[in-house]
Design brief:
17% of the residues lie in helices and 43% in strands. The chain is of the alpha+beta class and 375 residues long. Helix 1 packs antiparallel against helix 2 and helix 6 packs antiparallel against helix 7. 31% of the residues are buried.
């Protein structure tokens, strides 16, 4: 194999795979990426078995070939060198190979692994497909991923649920960690015939966001989503992003969303966010507990800690009802407020320990649920 590639091109593509390559070194091949240099089109593949990324590489090809290159070490080299790069394989044995990397006056020799040992791209089998605009899919992930579990023993909670209802042309994304829930619904189209509930790992959707960002002036891309039995494949322009699905049962989120909360509080989002940040400074760090005391058109937010002291601040609201006191984890409320974009938000609740529904004003397609806490 022999080729030339620009530094910017190589650095960008290597940056894209750094979070996918395996860092624990349990399987040395997973700390490498596969470079396939081909006249029909060159590309690189990285995988940690659970997720995989295939992206094109724009090169000036002299000789075709394949090789598995240590991803982190080449990334470090590319960042430091000056000028464009030339790659050339050096065969020193039947099983191992070396890659010579030159840039300017720099000359490196990298130990590489056999491409035959690199994991095969998983077969999708029979697939169904749907299409969604990249900015819409990015928005749906951004507005739900914060509420998904990160290291929960209930492994299905460390994920997002993709719920597809073809009869309604509805695509719903849900995240929950058992203490809070976020749900967003958008319209979509495609060839999915029956209702599907797909559990997608948090790490995969978190990494997927990198490829959904659309720059100003750039044409909005349609993401083609292929649904296989055990895998989900996202085609974004020439990039292919694949993830293994999580097997198991996701909580019945529709039963969690309160339908008959009678008490409602309307509040300006940005001023409320600032109040909550100020008051939560004095809450216990682990619980971040704050108290909401509501009375007609007034909310008092307070926090206290025996070791630190206390804080209290009042804010104007639109509320008509009995006095009520609620306790919350301030971080959960701030996460919800930060994910919303409307000027005002609505809190709907029933009693101090029942689930609280939070919505944007005049938008029922995005809903969040927070469980109150005893304080």
């Amino acid at each position: 194999m022999k080729l030339n590639v620009s530094k910017d091109e190589m650095q960008e593509k290597l940056a894209n795979i750094q979070n996918i390559i395996e860092k624990k070194n349990t399987m040395p091949i997973l700390s490498h990426f596969l470079l396939n240099a081909d006249k029909k089109g060159s590309y690189i593949i990285a995988t940690d078995i659970e997720t995989a990324l295939k992206e094109p590489l724009d090169v000036n090809l002299e000789e075709e070939g394949k090789i598995c290159i240590p991803a982190r070490k080449l990334f470090e080299i590319v960042r430091e060198v000056e000028g464009d790069l030339s790659f050339e394989t050096i065969e020193e044995s039947a099983t191992d190979g070396w890659l010579r990397v030159r840039a300017g006056a720099s000359d490196f020799k990298l130990a590489c692994l056999s491409p035959g040992d690199f994991p095969a791209w998983p077969a999708m089998g029979d697939v169904e497909e749907l299409y969604i605009d990249a900015p819409v899919l990015l928005e749906m992930i951004e507005k739900t991923i914060y509420s998904a579990g990160e290291s929960d023993t209930r492994y299905t909670l460390n994920s997002l649920l993709f719920h597809i209802k073809p009869q309604e042309k509805a695509f719903t994304v849900v995240g929950t960690d058992g203490h809070r829930l976020a749900l967003i619904v958008r319209q979509t189209d495609g060839g999915v015939k029956e209702e599907k509930k797909i559990i997608v790992p948090r790490k995969a959707v978190s990494e997927l966001r990198r490829f959904l960002n659309i720059s100003d002036g750039q044409e909005v891309q349609k993401v083609k989503v292929l649904l296989g039995e055990k895998h989900l494949l996202f085609n974004i322009d020439e990039i292919q992003f694949l993830t293994r699905l999580i097997e198991g049962s996701y909580p019945n989120y529709e039963n969690v969303i309160p339908q008959a909360n009678e008490k409602k509080m309307l509040i300006a989002r940005e001023p409320f966010t600032k109040v909550l940040r100020r008051v939560s400074v004095m809450s216990r760090e682990r619980a971040s507990a704050v108290r909401f005391e509501l009375e007609e058109d007034k909310l008092t937010v307070s926090s206290s800690s025996p070791d630190l002291g206390e804080a209290k601040e009042e804010v104007s609201i639109d509320y008509k009802g009995d006095k009520v006191s609620l306790g919350f984890n301030a971080r959960y409320v701030l996460d919800v407020l930060g994910s919303m974009s409307s000027d005002k938000v609505i809190f709907e609740f029933q009693d101090p320990l029942s689930p609280v529904l939070v919505k944007e004003e005049e938008n029922d397609n995005y809903r969040c649920v927070i469980m109150p806490m005893r304080i």
